[in-house]
């Protein structure tokens, strides 16, 4: 893959999930002491689990994942191994399907020692929520038991479902059952952030605000998250001021502090453009902004001097801007900049942990990319490699080993669009809009637009076959081995007719093949569309003749019958007449 990209996550956005994993990993460290001596495979599985837990205790998640992958043979005797593998994959930001696969093995084996199946259900629900499978997550939580972690996951799933009454009922129960837990309040504030709380929502917000002073010690970020709901601006400023005084520096708090007048525009801009990398301990050295924060601060600037300074800083920005359109704490896309120019873009709209679209830029323009494309059977996805001649005109697309080359500037494909984060003007920063409805590529569309198709050669190892096409119908195919032309095929009505080959690679086409032409009921030659040529290969060979010494006389001729019978004839004295014949009978 041409792009080296990492998913960027803020610790605060993932805190509820990370806490779940941390709790169960810590529980494993203390374990269930004194369990009976085990033998054979169970004992081997326990050694792998201990090995992985030791690596995890030293924060070597990659090492733990490798050890647990090697222990796959023992997954049927220890659910702990598969659960730990799922936990390691989760911590390593592996695709959600891989995490769920490991959890499925753990639950199917149902042989637990250090852990319980309820722990697997919690992590399973977390992954399903990430995949927007909220109803499935709720079903999984039915078997997760009753505790604060399960209650918060239920609230998170219900938050994104249209049944507001059910969410409100669950929130009422959770606030009553876990009054000293800040996470339900965090979820409530996130749920109500884009609403005007009324009725039951307003009543729930009132309960949360009354508890705010007692919850700030355990979750200081509630100070700025509660600010939009506080009717008394003096109280809101007091909470924000106290949060900052205690060292709180969450980027999301900048706009709240600016809105309430706790800081001025100069201080807000200085803090915004001096943000550290994503989080302490992150491998990234780039600053990360969110689109919502950039637009929020921009909208709060009231004087031209502040807006000019903001635009200048942003026009020179080097780092990453992410976008989280649904507000679930997991960005669907990220755009990387260097000195204000876009370097790359990536999006994962279904949030399965695998990029759906990646694009590399040069001089601020898209030049190449990779895109997930559904396979013909619809059972999986393949990666299509894209090259643009001049965006949006495609130069070349490679899919499943076949390259499709359209006529110059004849096939436009624009999976992204651009907008400005700071209004118009020369200093405006362009941003790649995350669009879940970008056009999809299909093999049929690629064939229809192609004038040339390249695929691996069928007669010479390492060769490339180039098929000239007109309106999806092949006209001529040539096969090249390095820079040497080794085969040429002519087509009639879209079907292979005659092929000339240089089988001994001496630079001379000594072999001629003729192909059987299929007929329709009307007697006309059947049109052979390129999609059939590409998927099924050449049509049936009718005959083959070879002139190995170059005297113009074919020494050997083979005729292939439809039933598989092959008739071989030799011209022994090179007089143009085959004197010797043998038959290899077919089925």
Write the layout of secondary structure elements.
Blueprint: H1 11-30, H2 40-57, H3 61-70, H4 79-91, H5 96-109, H6 117-130, H7 134-141, H8 148-159, H9 164-177, H10 183-192, H11 199-215, H12 222-225, H13 233-245, H14 252-259, H15 265-272, E1 288-290, H16 291-300, H17 304-315, E2 319-323, E3 333-338, E4 341-347, E5 357-362, E6 365-374, E7 381-390, E8 393-399, E9 402-406, E10 417-420, E11 430-433, H18 443-449, E12 450-456, E13 464-470, E14 473-481, E15 484-492, E16 495-501, E17 511-515, H19 530-536, E18 541-546, E19 556-560, E20 566-570, E21 580-584
Parallel strand pairs: 1-2
Antiparallel strand pairs: 2-3, 3-4, 4-5, 5-6, 6-7, 7-8, 8-9, 9-12, 10-11, 12-13, 13-14, 14-15, 15-16, 16-17, 17-18, 18-19, 19-20, 20-21
Supply the number of helical segments: 19
Q: Helix coverage percent of residues?
A: 25-40%
- Poorly predicted ranges: 1-38, 519-527
The biggest sheet amounts to: 19 strands, mixed
Report the principal-axis shape: elongated
Whole-number mean pLDDT? 84
Strand segment tally: 21
What amount of the residues lies in strands?
15-25%
Spatial extent as radius of gyration: 32 Å
Structural class: alpha+beta
How many angstroms does the end-to-end distance come to? Answer: 47 Å
Features:
disordered N terminus; elongated; 587 residues; 19-stranded mixed β-sheet; alpha+beta; 19 helices; two-stranded antiparallel ribbon
Q: How is this structure best summarized?
A:
This protein is α+β, with helices and mostly antiparallel strands and 587 residues long.
